[in-house]
Amino acid sequence: MPKALLIVILFILMQPPAAAAIKAGVSVTDLTNPYFITVVRTIKEEVSNRFGDDSVLLVRSSAYDHPRQVRQLDEFMAEEVDVVFLVASDEHKIGPTVQKLSNAGIPVFAIDVRADGATATVTTDNIRAGQVACDGLARVLDGQGNVLIINGPQVSAAVERVQGCKEALSKHPKLHLLGDSLNGTGSVEGGLEKMAYALQLYDDIDGIFAINDRTALGAESALLQANSKAVIISVDGSPDAKTAFLERRPNWIGSSIQSPETMSREAVQIAAKWLKEGQIEEVNVLIPTRLMTSENASSFKEW
């Protein structure tokens, strides 16, 4: 055998085997939201990079409907997927279905929202996001005034953001919390509806914390229609928020950023390690956050 050919053969044999293509199930809560579109796109890119372009993604949206999401996960099991990436519609109710997948040898990686029984979870540090946002709101209001929280679906992300916000507001005795029970459903339409209702319900609103940017965008529209000078702060750091801050629109003053790309890539990397080794070191990963405002919005990368 010629020496050159032998060298080529040895080189090929020494290369690590390419990762086999996989089939993955992805269930998110709202594919009308650019945030979750970015989550899905990033998972697809990272799965292709790590497991090859022949890998298959089965993508579903639960629309925050728990029974619908259960059916989706059952479908993934019937399709014999290798792994599931999940944004839970209900972190606790989904637990038995997650356990059923686990018993079938299918690991579940929770993204953005916790899910009982998940193999690992990757989320924004949502308590910190709420704290950062409402610290910023308190600064703008000089530590006094009436604050309203527009809540959302009671998944861990929203619950923890509201918890962090309340912790920040509690440091300012002259800030009065009007309420946190209005559910804007995490949507533009919900934010508009609940903000319009709140403007009728309360005589004086100085500041609003919205649990995500879609809610804030709807609330901003209601404030503009009412010619209100109340200010809004939120969580996401979305392209819509960046545009609002660069345009220096007066009502919407800040948003604690999330990075759906970082979150999703981290989840796929952890899943790849699990599929290869059957174990992982970190089962709860928190992605840090910062506050985007008109002053620094141009420095943030868009989703």
From TrEMBL:
Entry's localization field: Cell envelope
GO MF term list: carbohydrate binding
Assigned keywords, A-Z: Signal
Leader peptide range in chain numbering: 1-20
One cellular-component annotation, GO: cell envelope
Primary site of residence: other
Record-annotated Periplasmic binding protein domain positions: 25-276
Keyword Oxidoreductase: no
GO annotation (BP), single: transmembrane transport
A Pfam family reported for this protein in Swiss-Prot or TrEMBL: Peripla_BP_4
Gene3D superfamilies: 3.40.50.2300
Family to which the UniProt record says this protein belongs: Belongs to the bacterial solute-binding protein 2 family.
PANTHER family with a match to the protein in the record: ABC TRANSPORTER SUGAR-BINDING PROTEIN (PTHR46847:SF2), D-ALLOSE-BINDING PERIPLASMIC PROTEIN-RELATED (PTHR46847)
Stated name of the protein: Autoinducer 2-binding periplasmic protein LuxP
Organism: Grimontia celer
